[in-house]
Structure formats: structure tokens, C-alpha cells
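call fold(seq) -> C-alpha cells
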Amino acid sequence: MALSRACHASQPALSEAIRKSEDELDVPLVLRGRTYEGLTPEGERIVVGARWILADRDALTSEVGALRTGLGGRMRIGAVPTASGAVRRRPGRRPRAFRSAS
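ret:
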């Protein structure tokens, strides 16, 4: 039940989706007994791959948003410490201060 809630799906719908994936891949993804016992090694690998896909989706969404607004990338500005108050803050930017060892 906790997994189905985390996936925003009903238990029967989640079970059916897992069974369809197992049929498509021709390998069990879930260890089943009287209750859920965990994932098979193949199921664990699917989870890792799914996390990569979601991370790539998030990165791509951020990149597209930056292209749309014209803001993106990293900009470094060298300045004396007393000038740091003159740096304009912009939406979506996080200014960070670094000290040089020189």
C-alpha cells in the first residue's frame, strides 16, 4: 500500500503495471511470497535506471526553462570585498562569495 501511495496509483493498478513490465522484459522484478519481499536484482536495476531517467528529465526541464528565460549557466565576477554589495540580485540566481588565497 505504501508503494502505491508513493506512486499515486491504486494497489491493483500498480500490481498490473509491474506484471506488464515483467511480461515485457520476461523477468520477475519483484520477489513475491505471501507478502511483498523486495525486488529481484533485475528489479533493483530497473529502479536505478528509472532514477537516472527522472534526474535527466529534471535537468532537461531546468535547461529548457533557462533557455526560455535567457538565464542559465555560471558567471564568475572578480571584485574587492567592499564591492560585493553592488552586485545586483536577479530572479533565479544565487550569488555566492568566494575568498581568494592571494
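Residues 41-69 form the longest helix (29 residues).
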